[in-house]
Task: inverse folding
């Protein structure tokens, strides 16, 4: 029997696609730096694009790893665009010079997000373990703007920047960025190993979101976006979303370099392989996806009046820290 999500959607709206786990950076919080998987060739990737087009998945976002390490990235993007898919990418910006920006524009990318985690070059470079990465990332934004490519900026909120996120917004304005994503700290991979040094306490997360949401209300020249369902437990929070709780496994799925599908990049549980398994069987019948779409209130979530909206918070963070989807998000301040 279909669940509420599959009654609404016959496929995810977005596939977050990791073409390669290879990366020229070694970031302190990275979920995938120590992951390995066989990479598919271009012909198999075209087959996957055909499947996604047939299933009418509207958006593909290439992440990683660093997408630009794949020499066939532009060919893949062009093919996906020809098939009617909206293509975007998240990059560390190191490889985005003037020539790459022109190729990005010609191959049909709708937008490119650059990861910048501090407006202070030294802090960003240290967080990303790559000297010069701030300068190259900012230059990438400028190259993309000159090439006519819409840009976004991704910033992982952590102990290095949560008191200074206003500076990140100003940095985005200086370089013509359309949208800033203030991402929550996921606690997966290296993020789990380094969470004592980098993650905030629940009370600090609450104070950050109260302030950041107020800034968002007052900001008209820049889109500010969050991806943390725990925000919905704040009194008076009334922003509408297509789904309650985490969007992973509902509005989006993640794909690894070998075609394995996981609910999201931060949850390393394979629900099937897009080239080997029936897509509809994965989407409609996966026990893992069903469990994520029908979470149960346990622990302090039981009896909490906010559970209906936040559904226990970030499923990836709960799973990373407890091994159980249904446990309360450790960031929850209630």
Result:
């Amino acid at each position: 029997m279909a669940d509420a999500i599959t009654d609404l959607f016959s496929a995810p709206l977005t596939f977050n696609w990791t073409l390669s786990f290879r990366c020229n950076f070694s970031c302190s919080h990275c979920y995938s730096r120590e992951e390995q998987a066989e990479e598919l060739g271009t012909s198999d990737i075209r087959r996957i694009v055909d499947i996604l087009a047939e299933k009418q998945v509207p958006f593909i976002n290439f992440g990683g790893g660093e997408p630009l390490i794949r020499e066939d990235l532009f060919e893949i993007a062009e093919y996906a665009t020809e098939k009617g898919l909206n293509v975007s990418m998240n990059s560390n910006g190191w490889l985005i010079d003037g020539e790459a920006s022109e190729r990005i524009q010609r191959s049909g990318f709708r937008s490119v997000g650059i990861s910048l985690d501090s407006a202070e070059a030294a802090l960003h470079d240290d967080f990303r373990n790559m000297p010069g990465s701030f300068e190259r990332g900012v230059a990438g934004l400028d190259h993309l703007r000159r090439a006519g490519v819409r840009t976004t900026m991704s910033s992982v909120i952590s102990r290095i920047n949560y008191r200074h996120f206003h500076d990140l917004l100003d940095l985005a304005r200086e370089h013509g960025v359309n949208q800033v994503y203030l991402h929550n700290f996921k606690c997966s991979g290296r993020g789990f190993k380094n969470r004592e040094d980098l993650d905030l306490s629940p009370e600090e997360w609450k104070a950050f979101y109260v302030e950041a949401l107020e800034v968002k209300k007052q900001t008209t020249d820049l889109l500010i976006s969050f991806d943390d369902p725990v925000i919905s437990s704040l009194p008076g929070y009334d922003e509408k979303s297509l789904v309650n709780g985490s969007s992973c496994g509902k509005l989006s799925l993640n794909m690894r370099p070998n075609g394995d599908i996981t609910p999201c990049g931060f949850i390393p549980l394979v629900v099937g392989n897009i080239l080997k398994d029936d897509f509809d069987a994965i989407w409609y019948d996966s026990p893992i996806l069903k469990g994520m779409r029908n979470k149960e209130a346990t622990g302090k979530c039981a009896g909490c009046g906010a559970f209906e909206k936040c559904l226990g918070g970030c499923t990836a963070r709960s799973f990373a820290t407890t091994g159980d989807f249904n446990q309360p998000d450790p960031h929850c301040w209630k």
About this structure: The first helix runs from residue 4 to 8.
